[in-house]
Write a structure and sequence with these properties.
This protein is an alpha+beta fold. It has helices at 14-24, 75-97; strands spanning 2-8, 34-43, 52-60, 66-72. Strand 1, helix 1 and strand 2 form a beta-alpha-beta unit.
Amino acid sequence: MRIDVVGRNIEVTGAIKEFAESKVQKVLKFNDRIMLIAVTLVKDDHHAHGTFGVELRVDVEHRESFVSNAHANDLYAAIDDAVHKGVRQLHEDKEKRKPGPHRG
């Protein structure tokens, strides 16, 4: 399993990369067939104090990729939001795949 943290129009510092990697660890408990987690950080505008966008893509074996996006004025808040959305998607998928009560 690989975690990629990529920046577009933003420099990914060691602190940002470490924060993002620690947050995406939450995703791992929902599926043990995760192949890749890609976190893309984007600065939406080129001003000193702009908004940030985060895309979280979770590639799971034999499933379509789970993608979540978030935007915020604070990069760390955007990472939190994107991870929260990704966790919710994976949790809902896990619940959907559980065998339900048999009716009949």
